[in-house]
């Protein structure tokens, strides 16, 4: 593999994962929880970053060491388990993609005035165009990197404009006034839950990164992906904190848009349109690619026709969006649901690597121990979240 192609694949996988996480749900969740917890939300972000890194490094290294996709690893451990995991991932992917496509429409509406549905349809067409290009993998890598950088830079501008209380945010990030288990589950679920934790790992497998010799690059890519999402989360947190700390009331129907508009006026509102569209379209690409990757090894026909399945996935998500809409509550709830999937998926990976002997590779003990701690912590917090829903 040429050095340039290798580096492109490594950073491309990191940004595919990161931009899959940074979607409309990410923007909404961060805004809603910052409004609720204020500066103490910084502590939630720090905890979630730690859990994200442990979970993702474990999963990506196990995928690379075995050279297999997650569904095949699960089926190796218990026949049929891979199919169950795939169903969970597909369901979560479609649910997320409904919000993603809605976000595409909203972004174009803000920028051009076109009705939301038309913007959503145009964005679906752009996503399909990317997947039907001959060099789809390379184009996807460059596309997600470019739009990822644009999102971060524009949000930094808004964060500076909002004049956030940075010292207070730093203080409460380590000594919070309030704790919220649901917020942690939702953030981890929105960053590495469901299909997202497998997005870059499966992309690296497709790019030829498998076996123990690829592990340093895989680890670097996994950490890079989390760092990109962390930077975006922190910058958006500061932007929202600056706005709400000044006593402003956010629009409950579209909290992130009101943050951008209050902080930076009309230009901030237009920036929101760009950020929302970039976040949404890259998440459409990531959700479709990763969700269908969970089917590709089940039958040769699926592998041969995976582009048609991606097309069907995107069109189905678009039709469902038109039917049920894109309320704020759905975007927050889906993040929490994906957080419930994570402890199951990570536990399966750890059980497999614990039993499977791979020549020349021993999974690091610190990763195994910390991985099981994440499974336990996320499992317990998921229990508290479900208990809260049922109460």
What does this structure look like?
It contains 16 helices and no strands. It has one domain: Amino acid/polyamine transporter I (Up-down Bundle). The longest helix is centred in the last third of the chain and has 39 residues, at 255-293. Helix 3 (41-66) runs parallel beside helix 10 (196-206). The chain is mainly α. The radius of gyration is 20 Å and the shape is globular. One of its GO terms (molecular function) is cadmium ion transmembrane transporter activity. This is Mn2+/Fe2+ NRAMP family transporter. Its main location: membrane. It is found in: Membrane. It is a multi-pass membrane protein.
Layout of SSEs?
Blueprint: H1 3-21, H2 24-37, H3 41-66, H4 70-77, H5 81-112, H6 116-132, H7 136-161, H8 166-174, H9 181-192, H10 196-206, H11 215-245, H12 255-293, H13 300-304, H14 306-324, H15 328-355, H16 365-390
Helix pairs in contact: 1-7, 1-10, 1-11, 1-12, 2-9, 2-11, 2-12, 2-15, 3-8, 3-9, 3-10, 3-11, 3-15, 3-16, 4-5, 4-15, 5-6, 5-12, 5-14, 5-15, 6-12, 6-14, 7-11, 7-12, 9-15, 9-16, 10-12, 11-12, 12-14, 15-16
Rounded mean pLDDT is 84
Number of separate domains: 1
**CATH domain topology:** Amino acid/polyamine transporter I
Shape: globular
Number of strands: 0
The CATH superfamily is Amino acid/polyamine transporter I
Structural class: mainly alpha
Report the biggest beta sheet as strand number plus sense, adding barrel if it closes. Answer: none
In N-to-C order, the SSE pattern is HHHHHHHHHHHHHHHH
Strand content: under 5%
CATH architecture descriptor name? Up-down Bundle
> How large, in whole angstroms, is the Cα Rg?
20 Å
Keywords: Membrane, Transmembrane, Transmembrane helix
GO cellular component, one term: plasma membrane
Subcellular location: Membrane
Membrane topology: Multi-pass membrane protein
